Structure formats: structure tokens, C-alpha cells
Amino acid sequence: MVSVAQLKDVPAQAAPRPDLAELRSRVAQIAPQIKARAHNTEKAGRVPEENITALRNIGYFDIVKPVMFGGYEHDFDVLVELNIELAKSCASTAWVGGLLAAHQWLIAGFPESAQRDVWDSNPDAVACGSYAPAAKATEVEGGYRLSGRWSFASGCDNAQWSLCAALLPSKTDSGQFAPAFLLVPASDYVIDDTWNVVGLSGTGSKTLVLDDVFVPAHRLLSFADTTSGKTPGAALYAANPAFSIPMLSNIPSCLASTAVGAAAGALEDYLAVTARRVTRGAVAGHNNRMAEFPTIQLRVAESTASVDAAREVLLRDLRDRAATIRAGNPISVEDRIVSRRGQAFSVALAIRASEALNASTGGLGLDLSNPVQRAWRDANAVGRHISMNWDAVGTMYGQLALGLTPQGQY
């Protein structure tokens, strides 16, 4: 096994492709230091550079990155499984680390020239992103000009590029617009610190401000292409069909993994404390072991079952989509919506798990340094994301099952 310290000195091209077991071992090596910084990460409102460096040193940002640019080209379930483990230590770090890693796969969908813009001069470059089309781009010779504010750009302090969603004028329908991602270097925007929240506080999901920025035409990836999997990058990497999986079957799973991992970490922390805790108050009785209370036992069972089910659904769907595409079969609309259902429901289960634990931590659980209450807040924050909202995503699946046209993003 290669140690974290040794990894710093191994050239990317010489390093063998690590398997899941090796990557899991590497995450375990850095987990204690990331967990020790979790409270300060939250207070700082951003992921510290020490955490990003630790993730870079273990090859975290290479997991689903193309081999052509020094990556490992693992399937997405590998990244999601590892991100669940990372989120046990710090949900904010996992949210940012997972997204920066996932965006390597998304960048691979752009034309090769755009990928070279990102990685040729800096092989370690990563990109944050803001997915809501916040402005209309103006078409000019050779590309587009962008102005506006792009919010919720998680990890923007840690990124060298951003994926800014915008509406582009249609080439065929006058007056019509279609959404697309445009790749913008960090030198072309400023960061407005608008992030002051109660959950996922350490993600630094601030606002990017662009003022008449020119984006060359080759740094464009349309939503239509990436949500269908028919991207320029999919053609470039035709030998690996995983690059042609629809975006929304993959990327939101990385977001969901943060909630699942946060709940799993909360369960571990809860068990470590509650197994030896005795009551002190008059109502519950003095010097009674909490572990002997049936209500506590049921909360542990509910939380464990919820985390287990959430993890299995999330990974099963990712593996099913990869198996389908590798078998040479198209990923259907139903497949895509099943993925969206699993992503959102796994978050709902994670929220249920963290709530079951947090509600019985007592006065000690109110301390902001308590990892159980932080996990509870973080899991709930994941559930507020529009891609993870169970009401929105669940009804979309219900529409499909009932023979209606699904309304939503899939």
C-alpha cells in the first residue's frame, strides 16, 4: 500500500491505477485529520486548503477523471462510495471534495480543446459550478460574453475554474434560448461571500460575479447534450462508455452521498457516546444506562436501517446505469428517473436517520461542536437542494409511473 506521504512524490503518469480497496485505505488515512478540523471548517465557512491538499495527495480528484489527463477513470459508484466514507468525518469537505471530483467527469464531456484549457497547464486544476442558468449569454464572434451573479458555487475558494450555467440564443429558433455550461477560469470572476447558513456551512457556496467576460465557443457544453449523455467528450472517450452516462444519473448521487455519509458518521459518534452514557436528570432517573432504554435501542435500529438502505439504493442505481451502458444499451428515460428517485430518497432516509439520533442527544447535543447535531443540520441542508428535494423528485417518478409526462430535471 502506498502511504499518503509517498503519494506526493509519485509522478501521476507512473502511479498505478488504485482499486477501490486502496482508495478506501487512503481515505481512512486522512479521515482523522479532516474530522479534527470539521468544527473549524464550519466556522470558517469554507473547506481549508489542508483538506483539499490531503484529498489531492491521495488522488481523490482523479477518481473519475480521464486517463488521458492523468485520471483513473473509475465508474461513478467508486467515487460515491468513497464520498460516503469521507462525509462521516466532515460533510462540508465531502460536499466540496465530491463535487470537485465529480466535475472532472463533467469537464470530460466538453470538447477536447476545453479540457486542454483546464488541464494542460495545470494537471491539478478543479472546477466549482453554479447550475442554475443565472443570465443570458450574448453571442459574439468566436464565443459568448457573460455578465451576472452565479450563486451556490460550492468550493469556489478551492477551484481554479467554474462551470457557469447560462441561457444561450438558439441557433435555429429566433428569440429562443437553451441552457448550457460555460467554462470560466477563476481569473475572470470575483467571489462575493454570501454564504452564512446553518447547514453545510463549511462548503463556502458563495456567489461568483462575472462582468462582461468572454468565453470562447469551445468552452461550451449544452444541457441537452450532457443530460442525454451525447457529449463531445463521450465521442472522444468512446472506449469508455461511462462517459456517455447522462449527467443527472451521476452528479446528484455525489451530492446525496454527503447526506448518507453524514448520517453514517453521526451513528458512529452517537454509538460511541451513548453506549457508555448514564442519565443525570430526575425525569429519566439517576445513573441509568441510556443503552438499556428501549427508545434508544429503537432509534439506533431506525438510523442503522435508514443509512444501510440509503447507501444500497444509491450504489445500486449507479452500478445499474454503468452496466446498461457497458452492455451497449441506451439509458432510458425511466432509468434516468429511477436514478433521480434513488438520489432524493436516499437523502430523505439520511435525514430520517440523523433526526432519530439528534432528537435524543439531550442538552449535550446542543453544543455546536457536537458532531451529531452538525450531521443533522448538514443532512437537512442537502435535502434543501432542489435536486434532492423529495417532494419535487418523488412526484416526478409518480408522474412517470402513472403514465403522465414527468415534469422536472432528469
From TrEMBL:
The organism that produces this protein has a lineage beginning with:
Bacteria, Pseudomonadati, Pseudomonadota, Alphaproteobacteria, Hyphomicrobiales
Annotated Gene3D superfamilies: Acyl-CoA dehydrogenase/oxidase, N-terminal domain (1.10.540.10), Butyryl-CoA Dehydrogenase, subunit A, domain 2 (2.40.110.10), Butyryl-CoA Dehydrogenase, subunit A, domain 3 (1.20.140.10)
Q: Which Pfam families match?
A: Acyl-CoA_dh_2
Which protein is depicted? Monooxygenase
Q: Which keywords does the record carry?
A: Monooxygenase, Oxidoreductase
A GO molecular function held by the record: oxidoreductase activity, acting on paired donors, with incorporation or reduction of molecular oxygen, reduced flavin or flavoprotein as one donor, and incorporation of one atom of oxygen
A GO CC term attached to the entry: cytoplasm
Q: Which domain of life is it from?
A: Bacteria
Could you tell me which species this protein originates from?
Bradyrhizobium lablabi
Q: Which residues form the Acyl-CoA dehydrogenase C-terminal domain?
A: 254-390
